[in-house]
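Recall the central idea of this unit: under ordinary conditions, the amino acid sequence of a chain determines the structure it adopts. In this exercise we apply that idea directly, starting from the sequence alone.
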Amino acid sequence: MFGVRFFSPVIAAVLSLMVLRFFAREVNARAGFFLVLIVTATRCSPRVAVLMTIDPLSVLFWTAAMLAGWRACRNKQLRPMAMGRRLMGLGFLSKYTGLFQILCWGVFFVLWPPARKHLRCPDHIWPCW
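Accordingly, the structure predicted from this sequence is:
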């Protein structure tokens, strides 16, 4: 029983660290700290962190793919986009609703004007998908 439930709090901690680092880089460390504090203090978060279902893995890979894709769009690099593609694949393997992330990325590329230019230059980032 302990071996099965051990990884869920570890995944929750890794997820919190990823979100904290992202907010520290994009906004500031104080905002990241308060975001992690608020997410940890919600009623459902501690209960879900001890249950080992497929959801913690799905959320971890979804968030990691989102952050990798954001880094690729901000820095115009191919390596984070390839990493995001792999992470989306792992998210799909952990839960089939990971396919919706591809749809979310399509909406993101269409709605955010700085990302829209990546659709016009297929040799820059798009073949990585």
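The chain has eight helices and no strands.
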